[in-house]
Amino acid sequence: MRPDSLRVLILSAACALTACPSPSPAPTPPGEDAGTPPPPELARSTRNNLRFKGPERLTSDFAAALSLPVAQVCNELGQYPCTSSVHTVALGGVEPYGIGIYEPMPFTGVTTPIAVDRVALSACGQRVTLDLTPPTEAVIFGGIDLDSQGRLASRESAPVRNAITALYQRALLRDPTEAEVGALLQLATDIESSGSQAPGRDWMKAACFVVLSSAESIFF
After folding, report:
1. What is the CA radius of gyration of the chain?
2. What does each C-alpha distance from 108 to 5, 52, 56, 105 come to in angstroms?
3. CA distance 214 to 218
4. How far is CA 117 from CA 28, 38, 112, 133, in A?
5. N or C: which end of the chain has fewer CB within 10 A?
6. Cβ atoms within 10 A of the Cβ of 137, count?
7. Is the CB of residue 129 less than 8 Å from the CB of residue 101?
8. Rounded to 5 degrees, what are φ and ψ at 152?
9. 104 with 93: CB under 8 angstroms?
10. Measured between alpha carbons, how far is residue 168 from residues 31, 61, 187 in Å?
11. pLDDT tens-digit series, residues 125-157
């Protein structure tokens, strides 16, 4: 499967699970029944101080969610830690000795989303590999059967749904909604129709990535 095709599919699923812009409904003409009245306005949070997690917390949270050692979450070229060495400044950290950055940048940079994606994809790839390598004690993707073409044998099976639930419980500390489950199941269909050579494995990695890279996961 081409990397750019997989990225489009992943971003499509991410939009289904996050607040992507949607067209506003047309206003009701005067004199016509407006239907069910809108719900009362929700109260604003008194603690609306949303913050990006930063390199250390991002790494530790991903490691905890996927039961990985921190050192295995992401390494460039297999040896340079992504969050504490290569992408530290992009992720809001400091680098006083190498480039003289003594304080975090006041805002995230244009490369921050790319760095987050890199860390999340690497961590998810590690978890999928470990869960599918025998002999294994799968943490998330256990018991999922693949057919002769590498596809999910049954997208509605209990192991598939259990994997989705486990991702949400581990990464976001809550159960997924039916809409979120449906979006990730649809992602499996989209990946299968894209020409992937390993659609089941690609779905596992993509589903993990969608949850880990969500705003709910990377902000606190």
Report:
1. 20
2. 27, 8, 15, 7
3. 6
4. 41, 37, 9, 24
5. C
6. 8
7. no
8. -60, 125
9. yes
10. 45, 13, 16
11. 999 999 999 887 899 999 999 999 999 999 999
Backbone angles phi, psi at 75, to 5 degrees: -140, 125
pLDDT bucket at 164, cuts 50 / 70 / 90: very high
pLDDT over 90 (residue 75): yes
Q: For residue range 8-51, what is the model confidence (pLDDT) as tens digits? A: 455 555 544 444 444 445 555 555 445 566 666 767 767 778 88
Q: For all residues of the chain together, what is the average pLDDT?
A: 86
β-pair partners for 75: 81
- Determine the residue type at 29: P
CA proximity to 6, closest of 211, 195, 163: 195
Token pair for residue 189? 């269909």
pTM for the model stands at 0.78
For residue 111, what are the contacts with CB-CB under 8 A and spacing of at least 6? Answer: 87, 90
Sequence-ordered alpha helix ranges (H) in the chain: 3-17, 54-66, 112-132, 158-172, 178-192, 199-212, 215-218
Residue 155 has which token pair?
């997208």
Task: Say how many CA atoms lie within 13 Å of 205 toward its Cβ.
Answer: 24
Q: How far apart are CA 212 and CA 119, in angstroms?
A: 10
